[in-house]
Amino acid sequence: MTLRVLADSVLADGGVSGAVLAYIPSPARGVWQLGPFPLRAYALCIILGIVVAIWWGERRWRARGGQPGAILDVAMFAVPFGLVGGRLYHVATDWQKYFGADGNPVDALKIYQGGLGIWGAVLLGGIGAWIGCRVYRIPLPALGDAVAPPILLAQAIGRLGNYFNQELYGRETDLPWGLEIYRRVGDDGRLDMMNGASTGVVDKIVHPTFLYELLWNVLVVLLLVYVDKRFRIGHGRLFALYVAGYCFGRFFVELMRADEATKIAGIRINSFTSAVVFVGAIAYFVFATKGRETPEQLQPGASPRPWPWQIRALRAAGAAPGKVSHTGEPATDADAVASESAVTDAESGAKQAAESAQTASENTDSGKTASDKS
């Protein structure tokens, strides 16, 4: 990212006293017209993030033993659900912008102007992924672990769209890495901070909270990859760590933002959401099934997956990977031992029968030989 150095120098007592600040410039514009069609940087960043998440998620799924193409199949459900959920959350929490006294309800449909709430995207996106996993008969928790780092990386890429839109920034600051917000005007000469072109006039210098969140997301991605390789966790616990890690950073970023937002007791609603979701994610990580699914369990229809509230059945499924009891429920340790014992007994019986048949055959051959000699 290019930095523009601004310097103010004044003569004082025959000397030079200089104050040098290096501020981050915003892009001159975030929309380019290709004939009648607008090319929006925000949309391009979202699309790039989705592509990267599917590509990397597919590689991680195959490395775990899953079938090729499963991530793309499920993404066909999850992505549309996620986009709708993200927009619904944004509109619900900032409803004054669209349904207030000066709002326009039609603007709620203009997703290209920015405004996607990650909480709604994860919630409805998760529902879409659950539907896809039910259709293709693969375990949702394992798929969530495979795509957790890619999804967070996609979020980091998406934050670049906020940079082009000059949104998601914090309070004013004089720190060296402050972000310049330019005045933008449209073709009609009217002020249009999001869709217009820069006039070169700096409106204010603010905290680049989009950048803070981007860097935090990348850091958590690296931590997730390390934890996944070092401890080989599964059953949705890596996804829970992704959610908890993101919520932790987002909580503090929200405290620095200055744009309009719905508040409860003077605190931004996203801060409350971050805290509640963080606690839920940590609880899932602590109480969920330990270990990791075997490659056999990732195959379509390998075993019936218990519902999330069937805690005992979920633990049984993790304790006896790849086995299903005669009742159709995931096998317990006792079922596994009994099954292995039955196989051992069968093999032992077959071996004894073969030895008895061989002995009888040898005795018969011995009798025939004695008769021939006599």
- Share of residues in helices: 55-70%
Please tell me the overall pLDDT.
Answer: 82
**Order of SSEs:** EEEEHHHHHEEHHEEHHH
Widest beta sheet: strand line-up:
1-2-5-6
Distance between the termini: 105 Å
Question: In words, what does this structure look like?
Answer:
With 374 residues, the chain is α+β, with helices and mostly antiparallel strands. Helices cover 56% and strands 13% of the residues. It contains 10 helices and 8 strands. It has helices spanning 41-63, 70-93, 96-99, 118-136, 140-165, 209-231, 237-256, 269-287, 311-319, 333-373; strands at residues 4-12, 15-25, 31-34, 37-40, 179-185, 197-206, 263-264, 267-268. The strands form 3 sheets. Strands 1-2-5-6 form a 4-stranded mixed β-sheet, with no helix packed on it. The protein has a two-stranded antiparallel ribbon with strand order 3-4. Strands 7-8 form a two-stranded antiparallel ribbon. Strand 1 (4-12) and strand 2 form a beta hairpin. It is elongated and about 100 Å long. Mean pLDDT is 82; it is low at 1-20, 321-344 and 367-374.
Keywords:
374 residues; 56% helix; four-stranded mixed sheet; 10 helices; alpha+beta; two-stranded antiparallel sheet
Entry summary:
The chain has 374 residues and is α+β, with helices and mostly antiparallel strands.
Please outline the helices and strands:
Blueprint lengths: L3 E9 L2 E11 L5 E4 L2 E4 H23 L6 H24 L2 H4 L18 H19 L3 H26 L13 E7 L11 E10 L2 H23 L5 H20 L6 E2 L2 E2 H19 L23 H9 L13 H41 L1
Parallel strand pairs: 2-5
Antiparallel strand pairs: 1-2, 3-4, 5-6, 7-8
Helix pairs in contact: 1-2, 1-5, 2-4, 5-6, 5-7, 6-7, 7-8
